[in-house]
Amino acid sequence: MENKNVNFDVTLDVITVGKIKYTPEDRLGCGAFGTVFKGRGSDKTTVAIKHQYIRPDNNRAQILEEYRIHKDMSEVDKAGFVVKMIGMLKNPKSIIMVLEFAPESLHTILGKLTPVQVQKYFRQLINGVEFIHSNHVAHCDLSLKNLLLSDGNLKIADFGRAKRLISEDQEFPSTDCRGTPKFCAPEVCVREPVLVKPFPLDVWSCGVVLMQLTQNSEDSWREARVQVQEYDKWVAKKKSTGSDFWYNIPPAVMNLLRKILEADISKRATIIEIKNSPYFKKDEKEPIKRSGAATRSSGKRARY
Ligand SMILES: Nc1ncnc2c1ncn2[C@@H]1O[C@H](COP(=O)(O)OP(=O)(O)OP(=O)(O)O)[C@@H](O)[C@H]1O
Fold it and tell me: Are residues 89 and 189 located together in one domain of the fold?
């Protein structure tokens, strides 16, 4: 059987990985480099099949590095922090990975989150990032779309920009560590390439994720550059007004965000500091249900 997708020019046949045959079904998503299909295994499992063409800007070595890092993380992960890597198939023009299927992402459930859920997913994110960092890997592209959900639990996906580190202080060219613009730390948003440390980049991205989850919207600055008005205002730490998207963020979250979304990496919170913060440690409570207009007027934002 064949699944032809004319828009994205991807034709996938049944593939065999290990001793299992996987039949591609619907297209689940499409990133900068890959097209991801839902697939059915001959062992009755449901999987995700990520197909990547080998191209000059996504060469064979890069894709294989993504596979190896993801596989290594998947093998040592006993707690389910990352999407499981099942296997891989190499073709002359493409590489196909077979992954655990995760039906939702933080991006697809945004708008419906309660403060308790926001805290649950943020805690799972921080624990997952701590896990990969402790295994000497930085993700470098954490975003709502790359944080998938399976059985209500957050799983880190897409290791396409991940880096293996020899030491925590190892530096990489900023151009190799640029993920999704809204989630990128200021040190990689500069025009001239510089050397950057990858762990604080992941911490910054977790801050943007928390900011968006708390608001139940994708509102955040376009890029962390002072030329971008909203970011400039954030950096200036002026008192926020109703026109700032962070205006309604509750104090405990805001205190933590100020420490995470800190341009100076020597002052930026570490994962340990985040885990020791009052917001991380103290359980959020479900909002008190009110009847009538007060509840209706509070709109899509998580209510505190
Ligand atoms: N394991 C999975 N289960 C279900 N859906 C998935 C899975 N992996 C990826 N997807 C879907 O496919 C989309 C693209 O996947 P992925 O981010 O891995 O591709 P990419 O080309 O590397 O993307 P990017 O542009 O972020 O680099 C995801 O946003 C998600 O919607």
Answer: no
Q: pLDDT tens-digit profile of 24-60?
A: 999 998 878 889 999 999 999 999 999 999 999 999 9
Do 52 and 31 touch, CB atoms closer than 8 A?
no
Closest ligand 1 atom, residue 34 Cα: 21
Ligand 1 residue neighbourhood (C-beta within 6 Å)? 28-29, 31-34, 36, 48, 50, 83, 99-102, 105, 145-146, 148, 157-158, 160
pTM of the complete model:
0.91
What pLDDT does 184 receive? 98
Q: For residue 268, give Cα distances in angstroms to 147, 199, 246, 262.
A: 22, 11, 19, 5
- CATH code of residue 48: 3.30.200.20
How far is residue 207's CA from residue 202's CA, in Å, rounded to a whole number? 9
- The best mutation among 12, 28, 46, 83 to test binding of ligand 1, ranked by most ligand atoms within 8 Å of the C-beta, falls on 28
**Looking at the structure, do residues 166 and 181 belong to the same domain, yes or no?**
yes
Domain membership of residue 292 (yes or no) is: no
112 annotated among ligand-binding-site residues: no
User: What's the CA-to-centroid distance between 297 and ligand 1, angstroms?
Assistant: 35
Specify the number of domains making up the chain. 2
Instruction: Please give the distance, rounded to the nearest whole angstrom, from the Cα atom of residue 30 to the centre of ligand 1.
Output: 6
Interface pTM, i.e. ipTM: 0.94
Which atom of ligand 1 lies nearest, measured to the CA of 32?
25
Does position 294 have pLDDT exceeding 50, yes or no? no
Distance, CA of 88 to CA of 68 (rounded, Å)? 10
- Asked whether residue 302 is assigned to any structural domain, the reply reads no
Catalytic residue ranges: 141
- Give residue 172's domain range: 104-281
The edge-to-edge listing of strands for the beta sheet with 153-156 is 104-105, 147-150, 153-156
Q: Is residue 2 in a domain?
A: no
Q: Which pLDDT tens digit goes with each residue over 229-245? A: 999 999 998 778 888 88
DSSP state for residue 268 in the 8-state scheme: S
Ligand 1 nearest-atom number relative to CA 36: 12
